[in-house]
Design brief:
26% of the residues lie in helices and 43% in strands. The protein has 158 residues and is an alpha+beta fold. The strands form two sheets. The protein has a five-stranded antiparallel sheet with strand order 7-6-5-4-8, with no helix packed on it. Helix 1 packs across helix 2. The protein is elongated. The relative contact order is 0.14. Required for maturation of 30S ribosomal subunits.
């Protein structure tokens, strides 16, 4: 299936970028016996609105219909949307934006008795991230191995 999604990405990326938008993520999933092609787009600095998404959705749909052979021959529902404020951190550009920002980290296994953390992403490399977390009234730095991270996303600090 990745090969098919790669073809979709190849076709829609220039279309998305030509509008000044960013392709954040794409997924092809089956839910309740229905296939969904979900495409998440964003625009800096203030995000993308619903009218812009609707216009882009029409253009993307037209381009997908022109691909031959069809990379997604089974019927599917196309969904375009913004990833929202708490978007996942996946690409190198996302990681750059996330540095010094507040993030939520979900782990595969507990570290110090916890399976998730929220804090400021101070630094990162291929092996680990450095997160500044608050424990009661004190700030503490914690190193989390990247291979322990199940997911990481931007978060809203309360």
């Amino acid at each position: 299936m990745f090969k098919n999604i790669d073809k979709v990405i190849e076709v829609i990326t220039p279309l998305v970028h030509a509008r000044g938008d960013e392709l954040v993520d794409i997924e092809y999933v089956k839910e309740n016996n229905q296939n969904y092609l979900r495409i998440y787009v964003d625009r800096e600095p203030n995000g993308i609105d619903i009218d812009e998404i609707a216009t882009l959705s029409e253009s993307v749909s037209e381009q997908l219909d022109l691909i031959n052979p069809d990379p997604l021959p089974d019927p599917y529902i196309l969904e375009l949307s913004s990833p929202g404020v708490e978007r996942p951190i996946k690409t190198e550009a996302d990681w750059c934006k996330a540095k010094n920002d507040y993030v939520h980290v979900g782990l595969y296994k507990k570290i110090n008795g916890q399976k998730s953390y929220e804090g400021t992403l101070l630094d990162y490399d291929m092996d680990k991230i450095i997160l500044e977390i608050k424990i009661k009234t004190q700030q503490k730095k914690i190193a989390i191995p990247r291979n322990m991270i199940a997911n990481i996303r931007f978060a809203i600090k309360f």
